[in-house]
Amino acid sequence: MTSSASDDRARWLTMGLGLGFTLGLVWLHVAYLGNAGALWRDEVNSVNVASMPSWGAVFAHGHLDSFPLAWVTVLHAWIAAGLGETDADFRRLGFIIGLGTLGTLWWTARRLGLAAPLVGLLLLGMSPSVVVYGDQVRGYGLGTLTIIWAVGAIWAFVQRPTGGTFLVAQLAAIGAVQSYYANAFLLLAVCAGAAAICIRRRTWPRLGAVGAIGAVAAASLAINWIGITYAARVSQIELENPGLGWRIEVFRHALAPDVPALSIAWGIAAILAIIGSGLAFLDREDTDERDGPLFALVMAAVGLAGFVWYLQFLARVPTQYWYYLSLMALIALACELGIEALVRQHRWGSGLRVLAIAAVAVVAAPGAARNVPLRMTNVDILADKVEELSQPRDLVVVLPWYCGITFARYYDGPAPWMTLPAFEDHRFHVHTEVKERMTRGDHGITTELGRIESTLRAGARVWIVGTPLASPPAGPIPLAPAPAGPEGWHVGPYLEGWAIQLGVLLDNHADKVGMLDMPVSGPMNRWERLELFGVEGWH
């Protein structure tokens, strides 16, 4: 068999596995779509912003969501087209973005000269984090899709600079930074990788064009100035820098939660990619074969450094799995290029890659299938139960306060309700109002506690959606008015202290506090799984 025939066979084998693999990943997205259920608070917040009656109103309220304008624009267009009537409609938008991410991964792989994105499909496509939090009704999935697009588009421009490839690269760059704020630092990494190629080739006009692509994208962020300044103003209550070690641990778990084989594959892929890139540079011939490894190394190094700087010194908030999806995409593509360089070093490299990826996918599949069908909230179930049991004289209390966003969407019962602390507007995350309550210290929920007491004294019931904290032996934690609190402006001690105040009130005066058993079948999103309590009597 000739070398050309062998290469063709390996290429077709790679494409065949890639297509079959992609169909399997589509099933994961279908499984999430069928189990995600009602929208949880962050999703409801995005939907409420995007549901404003006009684009002008959406723009005026865009700062109340956590993303630049591309995400809320897409969501507003979806609603304006009549496609956002129900929760299922919004879930379908997330599903389309998830499938679009797989398609964009293929598009970028073809721009990079690969037969199929096998490494990306395994590491990124099979990760439960990417399926669940990429398909939720939030901007993280769109941010992942657009950074993948930017990698392929900017590479294509560097390899074949034309007016068309420049325009596509510029649109992709703007789309990336306008979908997720952290993408600005990842786009810097992509442009740095492209610039390294231009410098190696001494193609200076092309280098200037790459710089222009990045500069225009960065300048476009100015349209989000209101959102950026608002975030800086209210971020005081969320600021909590847990340290680099903690972030690394969260990132490590985000790569493949509860799928050990896939977690190991991420580590092995990174090592193989570094080896492959190193071997490409040991080759004495200075050929274009070095472009991919150089691009991958620079992109990964700058991307990691920039992302860490963003989290540690700019955002300075605790992170969860969904924060890292775009970074995971960038690293997966870097691994793709590095492993491709390694495969080209050996005659049987393509075949070994196909076998290894197929084997890991088979081993990891049960874990991925088990963790993807995740229900995102149970607040809708609790709201229905309260509707069924409550009377007009009763009072419903929701805590923490931010879960009131979800409760407001699903509750339509006879009893009045409030959050703890209570706010008039439950459409958005009202951080500025929370900050004002913190300045009252111990007295931040005095009015709310009085309302609960009067309801119980009148012989009506109080329904609590959430979990009041048990009273400690020493009594409630003293809360000085912010910023003189236990952790300055950080909101955590205040939310905990107010929940304890409620617990003390109930322990000391309620005749009966009972938790209603509300089982939910299947895995549940731990960030919004609340409990329901019925309280009655006063002594």
Keywords:
single chain, 539 residues, mainly alpha, 5-stranded mixed beta sheet, 4% strand
H/E element string? HHHHHHHHHHHHHHHHHHEHEHHEHEE
Helix content: 55-70%
- Which percent band covers the strand fraction? under 5%
Helix/sheet category: mainly alpha
**Total number of helical segments?**
22
Report the count of strand segments: 5
Order of strands in the sheet with most strands: 2-1-3-5-4
What is the makeup of the main sheet?
A: 5 strands, mixed
Give the rounded overall mean pLDDT. 91
Tell me the overall shape. elongated
The number of domains is: 2
Task: Output the radius of gyration.
Answer: 26 Å
Describe the overall structure.
- The protein is mainly alpha-helical.
- Helix content is 63%, strand content 4%.
- It has 2 domains: 20-31 and 86-371, no CATH class; 379-536, no CATH class.
- The chain has a 5-stranded mixed β-sheet.
- α2 crosses α19.
- The protein is elongated, with a radius of gyration of 26 Å.
- It starts with a helix and ends with a strand.
- The mean pLDDT is 91.
Annotate the secondary structure layout.
Blueprint: H1 3-35, H2 41-50, H3 55-61, H4 69-80, H5 87-111, H6 118-125, H7 128-135, H8 140-159, H9 163-177, H10 183-201, H11 204-220, H12 225-234, H13 244-255, H14 260-282, H15 291-315, H16 325-343, H17 349-371, H18 379-389, E1 395-398, H19 404-410, E2 417-419, H20 431-438, H21 446-457, E3 462-465, H22 492-509, E4 512-516, E5 532-536
Parallel strand pairs: 1-2, 1-3
Antiparallel strand pairs: 3-5, 4-5
